[in-house]
Specification:
The protein is of the alpha/beta class and about 350 residues long. Helix content is about 40%, strand content about 20%. The chain folds into 2 domains: about 5-20 and about 175-255, no CATH class; about 35-170 and about 255-345, Alpha/Beta hydrolase fold, catalytic domain (Rossmann fold, 3-Layer(aba) Sandwich).
Length: about 350
């Protein structure tokens, strides 16, 4: 028998954000006198609206951290508690609205390629501000999608001083995507044999779609995925909707990510943090892959934090007496303390 538990929710979430689910937050906090509104040109038609915060007590030029959000329409300033800790130690921060979000121009396309290009433009902007930024002491911190982009930037730029990646999926191209998909489908109640049929069909389809297969091959493989979903107990319309999601640029770009290969090329110090209660990015899958990828990195630390979810919000008791994860992204005290103890040591030589 096929357990049919919330198939619509599964199709919308598991197939749309298999690897880098959105991290939602409220409005960014009001800027202070130490912040500067900045405009960063990324590519034609895309200007990113950002906030550069230089702590008043920072020694010029100041070390800095580029902050990257997770999947979804992420604005700037979503890590206020973390930023406050950096500012207290004299570390500048830069965050920005994603393209098409907030005051940034362009069309919001949550695919890895444009998001990486925008992050690279933000890093280049920081490096251009040698008047106030110590360009030899720039770190990158990213959550989820941002945690995949951070090592990609560091792998291509040896000047990056350190990276912190939170809930960042690790694995080989295609395999990482399909492994995450398998976990989601199993959790949704699909039987093992049916799940494997769907996984094999999806792999063939996405390989054809991303490797320049012929239109005839792509169409045939697409139909094969629909048949596999239907054989697994899904209705035809739901199966077709799932395959449509698989075909979107934001999803196909996840399939092509070779996170472990990229991470293995990073020579900067790395702090990789995973959440024990993460239902978006599997720690059980990602931690072993991250360990293998970082085995030759002389300064890498991998930690799994208990009692936190994908956004690293703390588990608290609500007024109704229930347990729930609440707060800003990266607001869990233990996670904040870990980052605050590790990153300044790599940006401020005097900190021991």
């Amino acid at each position: 028998m096929i357990a049919k538990r919330r198939p619509l929710a599964f199709a919308a979430s598991a197939l749309c954000v298999l690897l880098v689910g959105p991290v939602r937050a409220g409005h960014a906090p009001a800027s202070t006198s130490a912040s500067q509104s900045v405009w960063i040109k990324s590519e034609l038609g895309v200007v990113l609206a950002g906030e550069l915060f230089i702590p008043p007590a920072a020694k010029a030029p100041a070390p800095a951290v580029l902050l990257l959000g997770g999947g979804g329409a992420s604005p700037h300033g979503i890590y206020p508690l973390l930023e406050a800790k950096f500012h207290a130690k004299g570390i500048a921060t830069l965050s920005f609205d994603k393209r098409g979000v907030g005051k940034s121009t362009g069309t919001f396309i949550d695919a890895m390629e444009p998001m990486t290009r925008d992050a690279r433009a933000a890093l280049a902007y920081l490096k251009s501000r040698h008047d106030i930024i110590n360009t030899n002491r720039i770190a990158i911190l990213g959550l989820s999608q941002g945690g995949v982009i951070a090592p990609a930037l560091a792998a291509d730029d040896p000047a990056v001083a350190a990276i912190v990646m939170l809930a960042a999926p690790a694995g080989q191209r295609g395999v990482m995507f399909l492994d995450a998909m398998r976990v989601k489908m199993t959790a949704a109640g699909m039987e093992a044999k049916a799940t494997e049929r769907v996984i094999r069909a999806t792999g063939r389809y996405l390989d054809a779609l991303t490797n320049g297969g012929s239109q005839e091959m792509i169409a045939a493989d697409r139909a094969g995925v629909v048949r596999a979903f239907v054989a697994g107990g899904w209705k035809q319309t739901l199966a077709e909707g799932a395959v449509k999601t698989l075909s979107e640029p934001a999803t196909t770009s996840l399939y092509t990510v070779a996170a472990s290969d990229v991470l293995s090329r990073v020579r900067a110090p790395v702090l990789a943090i995973y959440a024990a209660d993460d239902t978006v990015v599997s720690s059980a899958l990602s931690i072993p892959e991250a360990r293998r990828a970082l085995i030759k990195n002389g300064d890498a630390k991998i930690v799994e934090m208990p009692d936190v979810e994908h956004g690293f919000k703390p588990l608290v008791s609500t007024t109704e007496g229930k347990k729930d994860y609440q707060g800003w992204p990266i607001s869990d005290p233990a996670t904040l303390s870990l980052i605050d103890g590790w990153l300044p040591r790599h940006l401020l030589p005097a900190v021991k």
